[in-house]
Recover the amino acids of this structure.
């Protein structure tokens, strides 16, 4: 069990766009290969439309690659598979959209365990309280509704929910982008601490190179669906030899 958690071999994706009488190919992601190890955090950076969410959806098994092979813990991923249930989790940009407003927080956090057929109700309740501790929220939040929480607190809830089934991989797609800067820092630090503590592999998608450098071990830079660079986060403390990366370093205040 020491191989990569996630492996992409020549994985690419195109969509068909335009009206039915003038269909054309939109290459959302050019074939790309990479491996993600246990406990590793890979940031994916790029401007809007560069293919970040497409990559996230491919890794989560939510969309099929147009070419190439994806493997999770050494086993090929073939679309949305039951076998992956509970092993992958996602934290998305807008916590108000990803939490059901009519569901109490505790039930939202427990839902993935229920869907994955994990544990009895009483055990799930105990796990919910433990998860609330983990993400720094009071236990009595379990009985509240999402509208009673701030944006940062709601994002902590979606993180607790993502952790519920002890997944091996968590995909964060612009998970802090909608939060105020001070709250962003708190949530980023929480993600970093949890990863150190629990050791899941993470794919952290952001349009902000400074955020990427802060949270990740390695950074993948995408532009128009193509890989511009795949580099260690610490290398971003110096001016990159890649023009486009250097431009991003300047525009995100790193240089
Ligand atoms: P990002 O998350 O970096 O903003 P996306 O992965 O969402 O980028 O999109 C990459 C490209 O693929 C964009 O040009 C987008 O318009 C296109 N695209 C994404 N999803 C679809 C879809 N379902 N159908 C057609 N085109 C899509
Ligand atoms: Mg996106």
């Amino acid at each position: 069990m020491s191989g990569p958690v996630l492996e992409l071999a020549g994985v690419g994706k195109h969509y068909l766009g335009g009206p039915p009488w003038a269909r054309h190919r939109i290459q959302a992601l050019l074939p790309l290969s990479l491996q993600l190890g246990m406990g590793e955090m890979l940031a994916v950076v790029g401007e809007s439309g560069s293919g970040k969410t497409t990559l996230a959806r491919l890794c989560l098994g939510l969309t099929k690659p147009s070419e190439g092979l994806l493997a999770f813990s050494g086993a090929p991923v073939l679309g949305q598979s039951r076998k992956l249930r509970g092993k992958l989790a996602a934290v998305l940009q807008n916590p108000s959209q990803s939490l059901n407003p009519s569901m109490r927080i505790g039930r939202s956090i427990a839902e993935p365990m229920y869907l994955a057929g994990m544990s009895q109700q009483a055990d799930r309740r105990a796990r919910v309280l433990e998860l609330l501790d983990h993400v720094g929220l009071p236990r009595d939040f379990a009985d509240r509704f999402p509208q009673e929480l701030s944006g940062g607190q709601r994002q902590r809830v979606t993180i607790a929910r993502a952790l519920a089934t002890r997944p091996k991989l968590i995909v964060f797609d612009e998970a802090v982008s909608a939060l105020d800067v001070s709250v962003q820092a708190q949530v980023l630090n929480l993600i970093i601490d949890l990863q150190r503590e629990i050791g899941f592999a993470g794919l952290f998608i952001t349009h902000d190179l400074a955020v990427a450098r802060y949270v990740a071990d390695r950074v993948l830079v995408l532009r128009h669906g193509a890989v511009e660079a795949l580099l260690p986060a610490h290398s971003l403390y110096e001016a990159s030899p890649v023009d486009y990366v250097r431009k991003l370093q300047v525009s995100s205040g790193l240089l």
The pocket of adenosine-5'-diphosphate (ligand 1) is lined by residues 15, 17, 26, 28, 46, 48-54 (CB under 6 Å). The chain has two domains: 1-87+168-255, 99-166.
